[in-house]
Design a protein that fits this description.
Largest sheet: 5 strands, antiparallel
Low-confidence stretches: none
Structural class: alpha+beta
Number of strands: 10
Mean pLDDT: 86
Order of helices and strands: EEEHHHEEHHEEEHEHEH
Oligomer: single chain
Number of domains: 2
């Protein structure tokens, strides 16, 4: 059965005086489905090409903040009954995360529609309003963030994303930051890794880079386990390079699981059940 929703687009306005902007995210709210979430871009390459001199690192921090706060609001919509009732539209939620002011991030006027799958509709809106304008070497190539959304969807449907947080694992001289981590005695760190690249050498180099990064924190004081959530190349002629990359990743010297894309749903559901069992109050 279809349910109503409202959405708003997050815009990066580089210069308020000129009003030039680039779409950088989408937020969606479907009250009857108790659903609220957002997708924000986590790269700044396109913006840097349009607006040279922008603060790329600051932009990425802002995007992580907005994404995290919108997911928190989604958890609140699902799990709590606000004393003053549900928000009336997506703008109530969006403005509670980023109030209207003269900053570089601005919400667009709201749009609306009907959907039988709010999460899928949000992804479609993001691709149509934000992702389609990205300049990629090949429009079919997927980023790490694209791969994460495939795994995230099952986790989101089980309402466990609120238990994830960023975590930095430190070795003696290096450190690795994971954006999606959950602690149950040890840190369980989920890392999407897209091998949907344009060349065999790029696939091999990315695998080597991850082996090297995790080798550098193999003696970290905190116990942790890494789950590499792989995105496979879509072109058949790159499959041998991907299989070789997987063999390289199997040499990682820390506790790990390597999850292929065909296992995305089953892994996400299994991981969600583990979280649910851990956080469920004992009777």
């Amino acid at each position: 059965m279809k349910t109503g929703y409202t959405y708003t687009v997050l815009r990066y306005v580089h210069d308020i005086s000129t009003g030039e902007f680039v779409n950088v995210g989408v937020a969606l709210y479907a009250p009857d489905a108790c659903y609220a979430s957002a997708i924000c871009r986590h790269t700044h390459g396109r913006l840097s090409s349009v607006f040279p001199g922008m603060d790329g690192d600051g932009f990425k921090r802002l995007m992580r903040f907005v994404q995290s706060r919108m997911e928190d609001m989604g958890d609140s919509v699902r799990d709590e009954l606000p004393l003053d009732g549900k928000p009336k539209s997506v703008m109530d939620i969006a403005h509670s995360v980023l109030p209207p002011d003269d900053s570089s991030l601005q919400w667009s006027p709201p749009g609306s529609g009907l959907t039988d799958d709010p999460s899928n509709t949000l992804e479609q809106l993001y691709e149509r309003l934000v992702g389609r304008y990205d300049k990629r070497p090949d429009k079919d190539r997927r980023t790490d963030e694209d791969v994460w959304r495939k795994y995230k969807r099952s986790l989101d449907s089980r309402h466990v994303l609120k238990h994830f947080q960023p975590q930095t694992i430190s070795g003696s001289v290096e450190e690795v930051e994971f954006r999606h981590a959950w602690k149950n005695g040890v840190w369980h760190c989920l890392e999407p890794v897209s091998f949907d690249l344009s060349a065999r050498e790029s696939i091999r180099e990315k695998a080597h880079r991850w082996v090297g990064q995790l080798w550098s924190v193999r003696e970290a004081q905190e116990e942790f386990k890494v789950y590499l959530l792989l995105g496979e190349p879509q072109h058949a002629d790159l499959k041998p390079a991907f299989d070789h990359a997987v063999r390289l990743l199997e040499e990682i010297p820390v506790p790990n699981e390597i999850i292929r894309e065909s296992e995305a749903v089953s892994f996400s559901e299994r991981f969600a059940r583990e979280i649910e069992a851990h956080v469920k109050p004992s009777v």
